[in-house]
Amino acid sequence: MKTQGKKIKIGRNTLCPCGSGKKYKNCCMGDDSMLTVKEAYKRRYGIIVKEPHEIEGIRRSGELLLSIMDKVAAMIAPGITTDQINTLVADETDKAGAIAAPLNYRGFPKSVCVSANEVICHGIPGNRVLRDGDIVNVDITPILDGYYADANKTFFVGTPGPDAIKVVEVALECLRRAIDTVRPGSHLGDIGYAIQSYAESRGCSVVREFVGHGVGIDFHEPPQVCHFGRKHHGVELVPGMVFTIEPMINLGARDLHILEDEWTAVTNDGSLSAQFEQTILVTETGWESLTPY
Ligand code: MF3
Ligand code: CO
Ligand code: CO
C-alpha cells in the first residue's frame, strides 16, 4: 500500500482498505500494485486524503482565519452586539479576497456563527448585546483560493464568574487532549474518548448532535469526528487527513433544542456551553494544526 509514494503498514487482521470487507491478509496484503491509501480512503470512507499543495492552501486559509480571530478578540467587550462581530468578519474576509463559508450555507443568513452563554453553536449574529460576565463563541470559516479552514474560540466578555471559567477551561482542555491523540495509527474513537472522559470527569457533558468533520476542499467532508467514543474504534488515521475537532461542552446536561430560526442550538437546562475548534492535519509523526492557537 502506498501513500503519496510511500509504503505504510496495515494490520494483517484489519479490514482491507480496498473496501472488499475481507481481512487485509486474505485480500490485498502483499499486492503492491493495489490501491494507494488515498484511493482506498476515498472509496471506503469518502475521505479526501490531501496533497501537499492542498495542505498549503488550507494552511493559508487558516492564517487568514487567525488574523480575523485576533481582530474579533480585540473588539469583544460588554455592550457590543453579535452583529458587530459579523460585520467585522464579513469585512475582513472580503478585504482578503476570501469568502465567508457560513453565508448562505444551507440558508445560514450571516458570515459567522456567534454563540453566547446557553447557545451551543450556530448562533445567528443579530441585536443580542453581550454583557459583562458572558461567554461567547465565534466560529470562523474562510474560503481562500478555494480552500476551507474552520476554527472557533470561546471568549470571556468582561470579567468571568466561576461557572464561565470552568466550562471554558474544560472545553479548551478537551480540545488539547483530543489533538494530542492524533497520529498515524490512532483512531477517531481515541479523539472522542479523550474528550468525553475528561469532560465527564469534570462533571460537564458532551454534546452529541454536532460533530467535527473533514475539511479543506469542502466545508463538511467525511469523516464525522465524534466528541465521544471508545479507544481504538473508528477510522484509523493516516497522514494527509485534515479534519476539525470541535468539542461542545455543557456545564449542565447535554440535551439541547433548536430555536425557531432553525439554526440556534441551545441547552435545554439553560446552562452555559463552551466550544473550541481547530483544523488538524495528520502528519507522518503526529499532527499539525492548520489553525494553530
Ligand atoms: N463552522 C461550523 C462548523 O464548525 C459550521 C457552521 S455552519 C453555518 O462546522 F452554516 F452555521 F455556518
Ligand atoms: Co467545523
Ligand atoms: Co467551525
What is the overall pLDDT average?
95
The number of helices is 5
Tell me the β content.
Answer: 15-25%
Helix and strand element order: EEHHHEEEEEEEHHEEEEEEEEEE
* Shape estimate: globular
Q: Segments where pLDDT lies below 50 for 5+ residues?
A: 1-6
**Which ligands accompany this protein?**
2-amino-4-trifluoromethylsulfanyl-butyric acid, cobalt (II) ion
Computed Rg: 20 Å
Distance between the termini: 35 Å
Helix content: 25-40%
Structural class: alpha+beta
Q: Biggest sheet, in brief? A: 3 strands, antiparallel
Find the count of extended strands (DSSP E, 2+ residues): 19
The spatial strand order of the largest sheet comes to: 3-7-8
List the helices and strands and how they pair.
Elements: E1 2-3, E2 6-7, H1 37-45, H2 52-75, H3 82-95, E3 99-100, E4 113-116, E5 119-121, E6 135-140, E7 142-144, E8 147-148, E9 151-156, H4 162-180, H5 188-201, E10 205-206, E11 212-214, E12 221-225, E13 242-245, E14 248-250, E15 256-258, E16 265-267, E17 273-275, E18 278-282, E19 287-289
Antiparallel strand pairs: 1-2, 3-7, 4-6, 5-16, 6-9, 7-8, 10-14, 11-12, 13-18, 14-17, 15-16, 18-19
The chain binds 2-amino-4-trifluoromethylsulfanyl-butyric acid and cobalt (II) ion (2 copies).
The site of one cobalt (II) ion (CO) has 5 residues, from loops.
